[in-house]
Amino acid sequence: MTMTEKARLIAVAKGDQPADLILANGRVVNTFTGEVLSGNVAICGDRIAGVGDYHEAKQTLDFSGKYLSPGFIDGHVHLESSMLDVGQYARAVVSRGTSAIVTDLHEIANVCGMEGMRYVLDCVRKLPIDLFLMAPSCVPATHLETSGASISPEDVRQILRWREAIGLGEVMNFPGVINGDATVLRKIALSQGKIIDGHAPGVRGKDLSAYIAAGIGSDHESIVLEEAREKLQKGMFVMIREGSSEKNLEALLPLVTDNTYKRCFFVIDDRSAYDLLHDGDIDAVVRRAIKLGLEPVRAVQMATINAAEYFRLGGLGAIAPSYFANILALDDLENLSVNTVFYRGRMVAREGKPLFPLPQVDNGAVTGTVNMKPITPKKLIMPATSTELPVIEVVPGQIVTRKRYLKVSTADGQVISDTERDILKLAVAERHHATGNLGLGMVTGFGLKKGALASSVAHDSHNIVAVGTSDEDILAAIQEIERLQGGLTAVAEGQVLASLSLPIAGLLSDEPLEAVVAQLDKLEQKASELGVRLPSPFATLSFLALPVIPELKLTDLGLVDVIEFRLIS
Amino acid sequence: MTMTEKARLIAVAKGDQPADLILANGRVVNTFTGEVLSGNVAICGDRIAGVGDYHEAKQTLDFSGKYLSPGFIDGHVHLESSMLDVGQYARAVVSRGTSAIVTDLHEIANVCGMEGMRYVLDCVRKLPIDLFLMAPSCVPATHLETSGASISPEDVRQILRWREAIGLGEVMNFPGVINGDATVLRKIALSQGKIIDGHAPGVRGKDLSAYIAAGIGSDHESIVLEEAREKLQKGMFVMIREGSSEKNLEALLPLVTDNTYKRCFFVIDDRSAYDLLHDGDIDAVVRRAIKLGLEPVRAVQMATINAAEYFRLGGLGAIAPSYFANILALDDLENLSVNTVFYRGRMVAREGKPLFPLPQVDNGAVTGTVNMKPITPKKLIMPATSTELPVIEVVPGQIVTRKRYLKVSTADGQVISDTERDILKLAVAERHHATGNLGLGMVTGFGLKKGALASSVAHDSHNIVAVGTSDEDILAAIQEIERLQGGLTAVAEGQVLASLSLPIAGLLSDEPLEAVVAQLDKLEQKASELGVRLPSPFATLSFLALPVIPELKLTDLGLVDVIEFRLIS
Questions:
Q1: Would the CB atoms of A50 and B323 count as touching at under 8 Å?
Q2: With 90 as the cut, is the pLDDT of residue B387 above it?
């Protein structure tokens, strides 16, 4: 803010000059005190001048009967999980009341490196939403996989100078931290004095103390109450995650009490386009929390000021003098229907419809990213070295998996998919550098009876992950993804049944929200016709290659025992 | 922390290496969750590695039956008000459990400018206490007085680069802020993104919104509950002050609820050596808050983590991994008797006794600061222009005064002190630049029946303030202060009855706490013998020259109507 703007803001607050805009007669949610108070909100430029007895303005909008809330803050999200290009993502979430997101962009960074991050930032700068950047700490997530790009300590140092940067993104390499790995400690040291986010699924006791002692301030990976409680007691801020694949709200909500709520807030982590369209974004989490019994104003606090305080986001999270005029008009505080959205004093959505255009940004640097060595059928063969193998067991609704030792079916000395017992072949094909790497393993829980599914969304390295009932269909599915230069597909008997093209980094569509959801619907319907019983099979598939989430995962280099943090030879 | 130190801290936390020190068997106050938990505290160097099942250490101290609390933080204090040199101040407060103070050093800055501030910082760097510096925003406090030095916007810019600096000190020039004064707005603009403290006694409504809109984040001047509540609602952190002259705890404690307590914390502002010796520092405020009904752990939170969060003091305010090992062992949580004090892992006080030496710092730049033009008796004459004059009315226990219009006594065409009706002459003599400025006015509330009192502690410009029953004794008192090169005195019939020499900036003694208190005792006893009925007459006297506290004050330039923020001609 210039000195002139500041002087005008003060004059408007004092009542000496008319406001630019007054939001009149609303019931204002006070996130400082947990009250709902009456008062007109006077806005000057992009800021709030005051709440109270203000009546003179260039424009006055009446919000009688409505509640006014600060814009929501999503404290940890991978917007790439929506599979929407940045502008379409913004149209989806802004109309739901999300005014700010905190993200490390590590999905696109794993594919395109800092060029990918710059593409997203270039888009967001033209959109009515704030993006606060955490420098990605773990690109690649581990040394147990091949990513498209890597982010070194020197890159972290450079990213931390970017204007959106506020800290270091989720330090997923918790074994590295706990064991004093020099590279990850170097990235943490570079971020000293800034926010450093954690990612420590199941880490407890002295290991957790060691992880926190490194300087890590938050965690979003607790799935059981006692784990979250311990993290809180040891000083972490607890992000309560409610995404599409990871739903922790119900389990963790009992953690939220008068004594603890200020150190807890809501995050999305990963949410599908389908859920964004049909359920919502952070608004959906607030709504669900209220349904589960959380006091509505407190739920709003956990979606606004609590995150702003943890991340030190000046001017966000409240409706008060000097705060940005990011304001939601809500029809009520139970169903939390977002009626109107203001961003920096401008109306940017009304009744669910975004009121802003898509940004025009050159995407040349983030397209054409699939670069593969041709896969021969022979590469998909798994020799039957043992009749009992470690098998990845899917846990519905979670991104953690279980490591099971199961008897597998064999034929001709090869391990084969067993549709009867639902033990299917899983493949991860490297797709960035044409190395020809191909990891193979077995998974249970998909229920696929024929055909194959494949995806270039495969956290975090985003190689191509495929599950199938036959090698032929697995191969056909991988080849379809290569042809599309990224996407999702369902095939059977060598025929493509449905696809979604994701030309931007192999992660994002260039089509509107509704079209993406329609194609996903068709894909899931086809998957269902092929026998899949999981609610979001492509989301589940996309996390099977993420070797920082316990217990057993598959990368292009092979099966990873996440607990032991090593490849299973 | 170096990478090597960090790696060792992590190893100790993990249990792979022995700690340097274990505090065993204490009951640990968890300021994150408001609980008291058991666990051994493992310390590595100056940090806490973890709390839990730790047993191997170079040294183990048993604290069975004791509570362990984080060191206390005083979020707003003018340590100069203790009249103790920096080392003696630290010995007094560290043994009471204060591990960190936030101060703008504006008392010594008003006398000696940045040289004075550097002197204090040089001392503190050798002491077991943290000093977080707020750049003084208002030196001089107003244009209505003559100070020894001034701090310009350019000086603020420079101070903000000092390693202790975290923000801008209490912006006392609230009329300037509200009216868009360019100099004060410039200082605020220079501090953007840092902490900016307020000082807005009685400011409410749109004026308060304007003040906050300028970017100011806290206030410590509320004396009534509704004022503090409004400040909280508008987004300020409310510092609840309990000093020697300003006692707001009882009035403001009802503000502290489950919904609000995180945005409230305790501060001292000004506390006398007497109170430090006999009552304590922040520990005394916590003790009193508990006696008034505040839950003990919450009281500790308000003396520790809440301030740390507002000021973003990394590593302070909790006993948890990576936090500094600033730990108090308390005998109990009701009387809050501080048994042992650790600062950065070292024991620095035990059973009220400091265990560290005084720093040796050259004080040449901050002594010999009284520089006066000789005062003739004629200068003390007040011509009787009117029989009814504005009179300063002292409000016992507060630093605010009332402006009363009272009939004054006259003789020979001159206004004179009236001991019967307790309307006495008050003088403020400029003492920095030998200008010969002398302000005169009348005050009621002292009760002095004979003689005069004078002080070179006279907030904030620290000229010489004197109250007396005759011009002769006022003059004698002022001359005694000049002779001492700063101090306090009580005189009668031209004879000095008692004095306290304050050679450092005219503000601080060079003697130990107990000697200062003994001399103050004698001064107050003499004042009492002269008829004074106020509990702390020299403290009261010292605030009568502070033209940022309503309603009526006296400076070397004359009477100041604080509400109208102008000199009364």
A1: no
A2: no
Q: Which residues in chain A touch residue B52, judged by CB atoms under 8 angstroms apart?
A: 205-206, 209
Over residues A357-379, the pLDDT tens digits come to 999 999 999 999 999 999 999 99
Closest approach of chain A CAs to the CA of B213, in angstroms? 4
Chain B residues with CB inside 8 Å of A182's CB?
3
DSSP state of A357: P
Question: Per-residue confidence at B246, pLDDT binned at 50, 70, 90?
Answer: confident
In chain A, what residues touch B185 (CB-CB under 8 Å)? 3, 6-7
User: B319-357: string of b/e by CB count within 10 Å (b at 16+)?
Assistant: bbbbbbbbbbbbeebeebbbbbbbbbbebbbeeeebebe
Q: Are residues B189 and A320, on separate chains, in Cβ contact within 8 Å?
A: no
CA atoms of B4 and B9, how far apart (whole Å): 9
How many CB pairs below 8 A link A and B?
A: 175
State residue A313's pLDDT score. Answer: 97
User: 3-state secondary structure string, A157-213?
Assistant: HHHCCCCCEEEEEEECCHHHHHCCCHHHHHHHHHCCCCEEEECCCCCCHHHHHHHHH
Q: Inform me whether the pLDDT recorded for B548 exceeds 90.
A: no
DSSP state letters, B365-378: GGBS----PPPPGG
- Do B441 and B559 form a contact (C-beta atoms < 8 A)? yes
Please give the pLDDT value at position A569: 74
Reported pTM: 0.94
Contact (CB<8Å) B37/A6: no
Sole residue written with tokens 């784990």: A227
The pLDDT score that the predictor gives to residue A477 is: 98
Please give, rounded to a whole number of angstroms, the shortest distance from the CA of B233 to a CA of chain A.
6
pLDDT at residue B61 above 90?
A: yes
Contacts of A49 in chain B (CB under 8 A): 209, 213
Instruction: Determine the average pLDDT of the residues in B407-428.
Output: 96
Q: How large is the average pLDDT for residues B54-59?
A: 98
- Asked if B209 lies within 8 A of A6 by C-beta distance, the reply is no
**Joined tokens for residue A440:** 């193979």
Here the ipTM equals 0.93
Please tell me which of the candidates A6, A185, A192 has its beta carbon nearest to residue B7.
Answer: A185
Q: How far is it, in rounded angstroms, from Cα B256 to Cα A41?
A: 26
- Residue B257 distance to chain A (closest CA, Å): 9
H-type helices in B78-130, by residue range? 86-94, 106-124
**Pick from B49, B235, B323: CB nearest A320:** B235
Could you tell me which of B465, B480, B467, B471 has the C-alpha nearest to residue B145? Answer: B465
Q: Each residue of B72-111: pLDDT tens digit? A: 999 999 999 999 999 999 999 999 999 999 999 999 999 9
The position carrying tokens 């311990």 is: A230
Euclidean distance between CA atoms A482 and A487, whole angstroms: 8
Q: Which residue of B has its CA nearest to A180?
A: B7
CA torsion through residues B99, B112, B147, B544, sign = positive
Quote the CA–CA distance of B133 and B552 in Å, as a whole number.
30
**C-alpha to C-alpha distance for A541 and A531, rounded to whole angstroms:** 15
pLDDT digits (tens, 9 = 90+) for A332-343: 998 999 999 999
- Spell out which residues of chain A touch residue B11, defining contact as CB-CB under 8 Å: 180, 210
Low-confidence ranges of chain A (pLDDT < 50): none
Q: Out of A1, A235, A322, name the one closest to residue B320 (CB).
A: A235
What is the rounded CA–CA span in Å between residue A43 and residue A20? 6
Distance in angstroms (rounded) separating the CA atoms of residues A557 and A189: 30
Find chain B residues with C-beta within 8 A of A14's C-beta: 178, 206-207, 209-210
- How close is the nearest chain A Cα to the Cα of B36, in Å? 10
Question: Of A565, B484, A468, B544, which Cα lies nearest the Cα of B536?
Answer: B544
